Amino acid sequence: MSPPLSRWLWHAVAVALLAALGSGLYLASKRIDYTWRWERIPQYLISTEGDDQKAPFDGFVAVSEDGKTLSMTALRGTETAQFTGFSMIIAGNGDLVFEGDVIAKTDAISAGPLLVGLWLTLKISALALVFALLLGLLIGLGRVSKNPAARDLAAFYVEVIRGTPLLVQIFIVYFFIGTVLQLSAFSAGVVALAVFTAAYVAEIVRAGIEAVPKGQTEAAQSVGLSGLQTMMYVILPQATRRILPPLAGQSINLIKDSSLVSVMALTDLTKAGREVVSSTFSPFEVWFVVALMYLLLTGVLSVAVRRLEQRYAVQG
Amino acid sequence: MNDANPVLIEAREIEKRYPNGVLGLKRASLSVKAGEVVVIVGPSGSGKSTLLRTFNGLESITGGEIVVDGHVLHQRSADLRALRQRVGMVFQQFNLFPHLTVLENLCLAPVKVLKLPATAADQRARELLAKVGLSSKCDCYPAQLSGGQQQRVAIARALAMQPAVILFDEPTSALDPEMVGEVLEVMKQLAIEGMTMCVVTHEMGFARAVADRVIFMDAGEILCEDAPDAFFGAPKHERLQSFLRQVL
Ligand SMILES: Nc1ncnc2c1ncn2[C@@H]1O[C@H](COP(=O)(O)OP(=O)(O)OP(=O)(O)O)[C@@H](O)[C@H]1O
Ligand SMILES: [Mg+2]
Which residues make Cβ contacts (< 8 Å) with residue A308, sequence separation at least 6? Predict the structure, then answer.
């Protein structure tokens, strides 16, 4: 069945309001006399700045007729060299060049600073997420354990981590633990994010496990399953469906929280944005683009998790 | 039922005090012989479930002693797993594993606990499902079955472990009336085959027809026990008489 007309109307209202907000922002930027320079942004996404081909020794340059090959003969000695695959010839036919002179430029499309930053954000988030899930599962199991020591330790962990700001934790991991264990900035970032997120994952896991009816544990135990088997084959599979949606939210938080690692010597997406701003003086454009790139990451994750949820939701 | 059969469950003066101070069982003693069908009746809150659940250690006891198939249960007993492999349990709410198919529900414990090869467990599960009349439902999930069908699967799941005794805690109380019969029929069949059973139920018809012995509990105590004829025909205890007046 198709949705009624009034529903489309309301969607149109939402779009109109968003458009109004957008033009409001545009007008506001007019008032502060801001010049938009969107054309500067692409080069920070994809850099076309090629590498220089330098002369390996002193000598004479010869350009082939089709202009596709450069050959060099040494000034002293018998050394020769040939170069191909460049995009632009700098030296002329018969020129005398010295070692280190630029004789041609090679075409090289490489990721610009923003994409490199995005890649680091993706890497650090993905690694931190894997560790956070493992650690969080362990601590979540500790929270519901029969052993009081395990329960206490897990509760202590969760309280301490949730009770302190992530930024402070990052400083502690980076400057204290990182120094003691000689961690690189990247490892320290992964550790800090994983440790922080694990506390929230643990609470999600605990809630998911506690939501499985008690009769399930009793039934599992009455057929002779051990505590571990009960958890693995009966409780966790059922808890998974309840755990997935909040876990998706937490993963999205992790990606966003990862912007705080830019306080360390790490050029993640946020840090890259800051660097690009300082070289372009186009803060509005850059931060909009950075925001869009974060949105892209979190959006892809949302869709992936929704797929997963649908798969788990098949049976009653 | 033969009087010379060995004793499977021997409860001696067991007491259960819940953490909140409620006394669920007061010095209850009971013995169940192999092959015997014991039905436990009594008003709500009289401790029937509590008694039954102490037999497989789902409730710990705070006094007395229980010996089940050679396993001794005290206040703090370990090794409940070995005991639970010998004692099956069927719950009022079925408690089937909703994420597993009917067949998987039956195979899980035999494969994981008894280490039976998957093919052997599968074959036995199919035989048991045929026995409870559910051969066609092997690959269904529990949510796709009626209450009566689910409870029959639950009985088959208990049987899959080849227990020495099965405990039933009000197996038909959560069922629509038209489904009670099919479950009681399966239980009756089990009784005829000589399965040892402890059944908490409000189905007095079943007690009369199938039980070897009927136990009456009130306020955490076992007040009296008798063969069904005498239990229903000539109740000795005054509180049993008033209980029977209410339920019959
Ligand atoms: N987990 C518990 N904590 C505290 N008290 C409990 C607990 N379980 C049962 N009780 C109490 O112990 C007594 C016996 O309960 P039990 O469930 O064994 O009764 P029952 O005979 O099975 O009743 P019903 O017919 O309603 O199932 C009741 O007074 C009940 O309130
Ligand atoms: Mg009960």
Answer: A244
